[in-house]
Amino acid sequence: MFSELIPGLQSFVEGLPVVVQFLGIALISAIPFVESYFGSAVGVLAGLPVPLAVGAAVAGNVTTMLLMVFGASAVRERAMAKREPVERSPRQQRLARMLDRFGVPVVSLAGQAILPSQIVAGTMVSLGAKRNGVIGWQLLSIVLWGVLFAALALGGLMAFG
Fold first, then answer.
1. How far from 136 is each of 28, 70, 133, CA to CA, in Å?
2. What is the value of pTM for the model shown?
3. How far apart are CA 94 and CA 44, in angstroms?
4. Number of separate domains in the chain
């Protein structure tokens, strides 16, 4: 059954305009837990060229990550202006410990293995990490994860397809 799914998906996608292919992968990659890694893999499995699949997946993931970062930054600025102490959730406490121990680069690169980039990035900014540093490291992380999973999907197609 699976062996019939991929060729069917590929023939369906081939009939779509390139813009629709790009937007479809970008939209699914904007979903937390799908992100650039699964989005790029789906794009490759669907028959898109690797650069298009990765580019679309990264574009969708980056868009929602930026929305979360700028939103968290705005909320933090308002909260800090009022100086109201905010109690952290257990998840935020865990991320804060990781952030203190490893810094923004490691949390950005490894955090996507645990939580969606949108949540990791927004939480780091809300915990006080520099917004532009978080954005830069998250961009790098999103691209690297997208390229890695596109390569894995391509390797799987070549080995089994």
1. 22, 13, 5
2. 0.88
3. 34
4. 1
